[in-house]
Amino acid sequence: MNTSAELLKELRIDRKAATPPPSSPRRGRWIGLAILIVLLLAGIGWFVFGRQRAIEVTTAPVVAIQQGSASSSVLDASGYVVARRMATVSAKITGKVREVMIEEGMRVEEGQVMATLDPIDANAQRSLSASQLEAARSQLAGLQAQVAQANAEAGRLQTLVGQQLVSRSQYDLAISQRDSLRAQLRTAERNTKVANDALAIADLGVDNNTVRAPFSGVVTAKAAQPGEIVSPLSAGGGFTRTGIGTIVDMESLEIEVDVGESFIGRVQPKMPVEATLNAYPDWKIPAEVIAIIPTADRGKATVKVRVALKVKDPRIVPEMGVRVSFLEAAQPARAAAPKGVRVPAAAIVERDQKTVAFVVGDDSHVEQRAVVAGATLNTDRQVNQGLSAGEVVVLDPPADLHDGSKVVEKQQQ
C-alpha cells in the first residue's frame, strides 16, 4: 500500500515547480542596452565600410565664349539718358480745362488731341464774327444792286443827252451818283473781307481751346485736371497750371556725359562708345560720340559730350543713369565667332559610345551629361549643347566615376 501511494505521488504534477520565476526589471534593462549597442555597432560598421567613398577628382569651371573682342577703353565716365526732343504741352490761351485725354505712359501721335478747354467765350466771339460777316455781305449785295441800277440809268441818260432830250446837268448828276455808289461798293467789299478775316480769327480762337500733340511721343507727365485754369504765362499766379502734360520723343534719346577737362582730349567725334545702364548692368549698348559741346563748366571743370545710342529699346527711358566707356577703335567684325561655352578638353570623355561630361552638383554628386562638342580651342574644347556657363566639370574622369558618384576636390600637393 505504501508503495502504491508513493507511486501515485510521483505521477502528480507539481504546478508550482512548472511556473517560471518572474524576471527582474534590472535584467530587462540590460537586454535592451545590449540590443542598442549591437545596432550602434552595426551603424558604425556601415558608415565605415558600407557607405560610398568620395572619389578625388580635379574640376574646372565652364566658361562662356566671348563673342568678338572689345576694343580697349581709353576713358570711362558717367552720365544720364536725356531726350533731345521733349515738350511740356500747353494751351495758347488762358482757359478752364474741360477734358484731359492723356495718361502717363500713353503714346500719342502728332496732332492728336490731348485736352480741351471750355470754349464758351470763343464760341460767342465766333458767333458775333459770323453775324458781322452776314451783315457785311447783305450790305454788299444791296450796293451791288444799286450800282447796277445806276449804271443802267447813266447809260440811258447818255443816249438821251446825245439826242438832246435831257439836260447835260441831269446826266452829270446820274454819273455822280453812280460813282458814289461804286465807291460805297468798294468799301462794302473791303468790310466784307474784314468780317471774313475776323471770322477766321474767331475760328482760330475756338481751335485754341483744343490742345494737340506737337509731335509723336510718350506722355511722361500729366499736369492738369478738368476744372483747373491753365495759362501759358501763368497769369493767375501760383495756382494756375502752365501745361497740360509732358511728352517725350523716344526716338531722340541720347546720352549726355560730363568729361573732366583733363581727359577731354581723349574724346573725338564719331568715337565708338560702349554704354551700360545702371538698371541693366549686364547689357552693353553700342553707341557713338555725336559732338563735344564747345564750352566748359567752370564750377565742375567738365565739358559736356553728346553720345548717340545705336539701339532703340523701350527699356531705355529719360533720366536713367548710365556708365560709358570711350573705346580706342571700333570693334572688329568677325565672320564666324564661336558660340556656346568652352571647357578644358580633358573634361570631355566617351562613355557607352556617347560624348559626355561629368557636372559637379551642389551636393558634391556628379551628373553624367551628354554634350555636343565643337571645335578645339587650343587646350579647350567648344561645347555647343549640354553645358552652361558657370557650371563645374570633372577633368580626366576616372573609369569608376558614374552618374550619381560623390566626389571631392583633390588636394594640391
Automatic annotation (TrEMBL):
Domain Multidrug resistance protein MdtA-like C-terminal permuted SH3: 343-396
Keywords per UniProt: Coiled coil, Membrane, Transmembrane, Transmembrane helix, Transport
Stated family: Belongs to the membrane fusion protein (MFP) (TC 8.A.1) family.
UniProt-listed InterPro entries: Beta-barrel_RND_2, MdtA-like_BSH, MdtA-like_C, MdtA-like_HH, RND_pump_MFP
Name of this protein: Efflux RND transporter periplasmic adaptor subunit
Pfam families documented for this protein: Beta-barrel_RND_2, BSH_RND, HH_MFP_RND, RND-MFP_C
Domain CusB-like beta-barrel: 255-327
Domain Multidrug resistance protein MdtA-like barrel-sandwich hybrid: 85-231
Keyword DNA-binding (UniProt): no
Classification via PANTHER family: HLYD FAMILY SECRETION PROTEIN (PTHR30469:SF38), MULTIDRUG RESISTANCE PROTEIN MDTA (PTHR30469)
Protein's UniProt keywords contain RNA-binding: no
Multidrug resistance protein MdtA-like alpha-helical hairpin domain sequence ranges: 133-203
